[in-house]
Amino acid sequence: xxxxxxxxxxxxxxxxxxxxxxxxxxxxxxxxxxxxxxxxxxxxxxxxxxxxxxxxxxxxxxxxxxxxxxxxxxxxxxxxxxxxxxxxxxxxxxxxxxxxxxxxxxxxxxxxxxxxxxxxxxxxxxxxxxxxxxxxxxxxxxxxxxxxxxxxxxxxxxxxxxxxxxxxxxxxxxxxxxxxxxxxxxxxxxxxxxxxxxxxxxxxxxxxxxxxxxxxxxxxxxxxxxxxxxxxxxxxxxxxxxxxxxxxxxxxxxxxxxxxxxxxxxxxxxxxxxxxxxxxxxxxxxxxxxxxxxxxxxxxxxxxxxxxxxxxxxxxxxxxxxxxxxxxxxxxxxxxxxxxxxxxxxxxxxxxxxxxxxxxxxxxxxxxxxxxxxx
Length: 375
What we know:
- This protein is about 20% helix and about 30% strand.
- By secondary structure, the chain is α+β, with helices and mostly antiparallel strands.
- The strands form three sheets. A nine-stranded mixed β-sheet has the order 14-19-11-12-13-18-17-16-15, sandwiched between helices.
- The chain is elongated and about 90 Å long.
């Protein structure tokens, strides 16, 4: 009986050894598979590191930016990897106008990076920005991520004579885009006064040189430009008498617009299509300055008095400071088209909900301008 018990114990020990041997074999097998996975043996590794990209516009005040302000777009991305780039999308009034691929720089040896770009608010009502990181493959993969859309409103300001700065410079360029031809520079001078006066005349606003918020906003957004009536005339001059301006245009594209005073009720400006046939430099005995004649005694010329209403003997009076440039533009044979009713008053006036003082007071016959000022 003692022998049988010993035999039984030996059999049990053998079974235990067999089980342990199988377990060890399985452990070695799976251990080998893990090693194979680490060495590219085909087992799927863990997923890429989760990324996080953030973005923020800097330089805003109560969610707004003054026109012509430079706004810094600052962002961050983690985790950091060498060679990362983020796509920055810029919007104006809901439409994307630019996409930039911005390089990410490591932030002081930490495990995240930063990126930055800038945008200047040159018009519109609202700007927006968002960013997206498309991820990174390779030995240290990173997932993709995107930001929420951040936006801000544009704040417009009024401008006045003698004011200087980047807003005035931007406004000057915006006037030029509408063919209102102020001189170059960053100060509000006499040439800009007359350009604003011409714009107000074109848009049936109070005839003065006040660059109100309404005017500044419309000009920056290219509203209120002149639509050419006779593009088939090629390089020509048009005089819409109801607007009291003259317009030089190449086909349908205006390139120079100036305020004028046309013929008074007793001596109206002749209507029709003509061409310049004679040019007379300097002053003549009637006080006409640098005259360009288009039929008989009718001419464009500078004069000491240029009211905001029809007042000449039939000619198109210009400001003396503008006339040398006009004289240079006019060429013998250039077509001239005069049309409209100078005494009809405002035609399709521009309307605002609350005019208040925004359109400015009536500053007299010349809108507060000095016809002889040469700045």
